[in-house]
From TrEMBL:
Protein source organism: Rhodovarius crocodyli
Keyword annotations of the record: Cell membrane, Membrane, Transmembrane, Transmembrane helix
Primary location: membrane
Places the protein is found: Cell membrane
Membrane topology: Multi-pass membrane protein
Any one of the GO CC terms: plasma membrane
Name of protein: Flippase-like domain-containing protein
Transmembrane segments: 32-52, 143-166, 210-233, 273-290
Cross-referenced InterPro entries: L-PG_synthase/AglD
Length: 317
């Protein structure tokens, strides 16, 4: 995965540079220079959706060992920093957060199960947010293929449903039990751990209120994330309405998720911003400036997130 991710990162970076280079660089530079220090405000606007996502994740961790909201926000910050900047296929952050949660006293089944359920439910909440973006795009006059939307919705529901059903079917513990039998009980500890995880998952899905609340908070986080686009439009002096900010954020996130093998969706995100800016009635250079403003967020917010993770690993916290 690391080698594939590195190759994808290099290819994506080259494509990103090419996309930006094709625009009116004088206009792009003027927009960014006009924004100046306001770009820091654009970057730190991301703290709000991270906090809302932390609240969503917390809904799935029961008991007194659940970390505080600031603690869960720290977890989300580190998770996004790793998944966004490193060639880990957007799963490395979950592995690191599992280790950190265990260190903080969260039981293994709750730590692993909550992350697995959070990931499954995020498919549903993001699909709903993407549909909102397509609806806003259609309302703005764009021609949207409704058959494509229907097929995409069905695919998303099937994927999320299959993931949830697999989590409820004890498939992991059954597979490990088979391997343990073949290994003559040398995997007994692993088998016991996976049985505890499957027990936790069954109990979780029997608490629909927690799953519903998590999905609602996740959807709220997607919506709040559009604040970044709106603030970026203000900083760059672009006439971006709230509806256009929602549309751009929804479809950019969908593109980024589809390009999960490419670290930070390099190239895909830049091309998406240019295309969506045009659909919102803005010049292509404005889209390139929005894309670079988003990259500035990655540097200002996510690089320190990697540093925080390294410090926590070194200090054992």
């Amino acid at each position: 995965m690391n080698r594939i991710g590195l190759i994808a990162a290099v290819a994506g970076l080259g494509f990103a540079v090419w996309v930006v280079w094709q625009q009116d660089w004088a206009e792009v530079s003027a927009l960014l220079a006009g924004a100046g220090a306001s770009l820091f405000l654009v970057a730190f606007a991301h703290v709000l959706p991270m906090a809302v996502n932390a609240q969503a994740w917390a809904m799935l961790i029961p008991g007194a060992k659940r970390p505080s909201l600031p603690g869960m926000t720290l977890q989300v910050w580190i998770r996004e920093s790793i998944n966004g900047l490193l060639p880990v296929g957007r799963i490395g952050g979950e592995v690191v957060c599992f280790r950190l949660l265990r260190r903080w006293g969260v039981r293994g089944p709750a730590a692993a199960g909550s992350m697995m359920a959070d990931l499954a439910l995020s498919m549903i909440s993001q699909m709903l947010f993407s549909l909102l973006g397509l609806a806003l795009l259609s309302a703005g006059g764009a021609v949207v293929g409704w058959l494509t939307i229907l097929l995409g919705t069905l695919a998303g529901l099937l994927l999320a449903g299959a993931t949830i059903m697999a989590m409820r079917a004890n498939w992991l513990s059954r597979a490990i039990d088979v391997l343990n039998g073949l290994a003559k009980d040398r995997l007994a500890g692993l088998a016991a751990g996976t049985r505890r995880l499957d027990t936790y998952m069954r109990r979780l899905w029997r608490r629909p209120r927690a799953a519903v609340l998590c999905t609602v908070w996740q959807f709220a986080a997607w919506v709040v994330g559009a604040v970044e686009i709106w603030v970026a439009g203000w900083a760059l002096g672009l006439p971006i309405s709230w509806a256009d900010a929602l549309m751009i954020e929804a479809l950019i996130q969908a593109l980024s998720s589809a390009a999960f093998l490419v670290p930070g969706a390099l190239g895909i995100q830049e091309a998406g911003f240019v295309g969506l800016a045009v659909l919102a009635g803005l010049p292509p250079a404005a889209g390139a400036a929005l894309g670079l403003a988003r990259r500035f967020r990655d540097v200002v917010v996510f690089l320190p997130g990697l540093a925080a993770w390294a410090w926590m690993e070194r200090s054992g916290k």
